[in-house]
Specification:
Length: 498
């Protein structure tokens, strides 16, 4: 088995596995007692650039990067600050604290790196689904949504910039594989619960909307149950029947003149205006049952619309009771559902940021070797200077990867369909907190609500995902990704292998 080491210190050949204990011991021996390098769970004091106010949604893109430690990690941090913040205000920077995690073997790290890529994508999608469904439940009230999109009781920017590893949820004594499995199980549980709760709530909401829709719209289509009364009809008569007719407002006078002559057996002076909207009015008229067909035919010729309606008190009462029940049930479910969404959004978001921390740790060890000696840093680039920011970081860290240094930043890598912009000589992952721009409605698939609208959204999302994933598919393909990453890591770390 090949073992990872660095040019500074070679690992004893007897160590066939790089367990967490020996990795942390090696890391500790390489650090200064006064200047902790790399991950450090005890580093709770914030010495980074302060964040003043809540950032607007359009400015909540962060770059999580890492670079190998110099003599001390503070020197790595100082170099970044000088290059990006103190002189030219390209970004606002914070240290990103990652604890001492167990390392393992090269093969384990390479395989885990591929798995974490997929897990990152999955948990991010869960975070965005929960956020978007909260917006749907709160009916897109942005202020209310933002009030509930919190992580550990604080806004997302504050949580990320002051990130501390949750030792209780994700014990660092566990292997990296076990920690990733804990997060995967947590994300799957939230995703399944969301689908079930959303399906139930959407069905309830849809049934209520269907009833409400019947009581809305024009007189040509809407339900008449809440308009008419029992006294408007001749009931229980063997010979007489009351008809309901929709008459355009401009034809009121014509109706009054001719309704008695539309059939031979219309009761004189029996018409009555029951209700009107902005276009038309609903009139009642009483006639003999055997004249109904003739009356309908003549009314249609004169552009009067006869509504097929039979007054049934029991059915009307049942409809009103059903609407009341659905409305009450919706109110009962609303509060607990919002609370569940709030709690589980926090859980999913926290898990997602821990995945980012895991990815930085794994990738940093693979790139920079052992002992663990890197500084993780959180950058929020100035939106106007993002291109300049990339150039500065490239100049600062291009010596870390000679293969990246010789390739033009705008050039595509042949055969991979992967832009060089997605691979940098330093470890890099993006964190986008603008969660409501990405709409997923997976929970609607089972509920049947707004199916056509859902299909349109899914088509749009697939096209959008295709645009954003151009080149990434090759990276995330399990077979090709693993083989390519192994070759790249072994080439890069050959001087460090013993």
């Amino acid at each position: 088995m090949l073992k990872i080491t660095t040019v500074r210190e070679r690992v004893n050949p007897a160590q066939k596995k790089l367990g967490g204990v020996c990795a942390r011991a090696a890391a500790a021996s390489a650090r200064s007692a006064d200047e902790p390098c790399g991950p450090n769970p005890a580093a709770t004091q914030l010495t980074e650039t302060p964040w003043t106010n809540f950032l607007p949604a359009a400015m909540t893109e962060f770059w999580l990067i890492s670079a190998p430690g110099e003599k001390t990690c503070q020197q790595t941090w100082d170099k970044l600050m000088v290059a990006t913040s103190r002189n030219n205000n390209l970004s606002t920077n914070n240290k990103f604290n990652i604890p001492d995690l167990k390392v393992g073997t090269l093969d384990v790290l390479v395989g885990l790196s591929d798995e974490l890529t997929k897990l990152d994508t999955f948990v991010e999608s869960v975070v965005k689904k929960v956020a978007q469904y909260m917006a749907d439940v709160l009916e897109d009230s942005r202020d209310k949504v933002q009030e509930n999109l919190l992580a550990n009781g604080v806004d997302l920017v504050t949580y990320i910039t002051r990130f501390q590893w949750d030792m209780a949820k994700y014990p660092i004594k566990q292997s990296l594989k076990n920690i990733s499995e804990i997060i995967a199980k947590q994300g799957t549980q939230i995703d399944n619960d969301l689908k079930a709760r959303a399906s139930a709530y959407n069905n309830l909401k849809g049934n209520l909307q269907n009833l409400e829709r019947k009581n809305a719209g024009s007189l040509m289509t809407r339900s008449l149950a809440d308009i008419v009364k029992k006294e408007d009809f001749v009931l229980d008569s063997e010979y007489l029947i009351t008809m309901l007719v929709v008459v355009p407002k401009i034809a009121y006078a014509d109706w009054q003149k001719m309704y008695e002559t539309l059939a031979e057996m219309v009761v004189p002076r029996s018409t009555k205006l029951l209700f009107e909207d902005h276009d038309s009015g609903l009139f009642s008229v009483t006639l003999f049952r055997k004249a109904v067909d003739d009356f309908k035919h003549k009314a249609r010729e004169n552009k009067f619309t006869v509504r097929d309606f039979q007054y049934n008190e029991e059915e009307l009462k049942a409809d009103k009771e059903e609407m009341t029940r659905l409305s009450t049930d919706k109110k009962k479910q609303f509060g607990p559902l919002v609370r569940w969404l709030k709690v589980n959004f926090s859980e999913a978001f926290i898990a997602w940021i821990h995945i980012k921390a895991l990815r930085v740790f794994v990738e940093s060890v693979l790139r920079y070797g052992l002992p663990v000696n890197f500084q993780a840093m959180l950058l929020q680039p100035n939106k106007k200077n993002m291109k300049k920011m990339r150039e500065v970081l490239y100049d600062l860290y291009k010596h870390l990867d000679s293969s990246a240094a010789v390739i033009d930043a705008a050039m595509d890598i042949p055969g991979l369909n992967l832009s060089q912009q997605e691979y940098y000589p330093y470890v890099y992952y993006k964190i986008d907190c603008n969660l409501l721009d990405f709409k997923l409605c997976v929970w609607r698939e089972n509920s049947g609500i707004n199916h056509h609208h859902h299909q349109q959204q899914q088509q749009h999302l697939q096209a959008d995902d295709g645009d954003r994933s151009t080149g990434r598919a090759a990276v995330e393909d399990p077979g090709s990704s693993s083989r390519r990453r192994r070759r790249r890591m072994k080439r890069r770390m050959m001087p460090r292998l013993c």
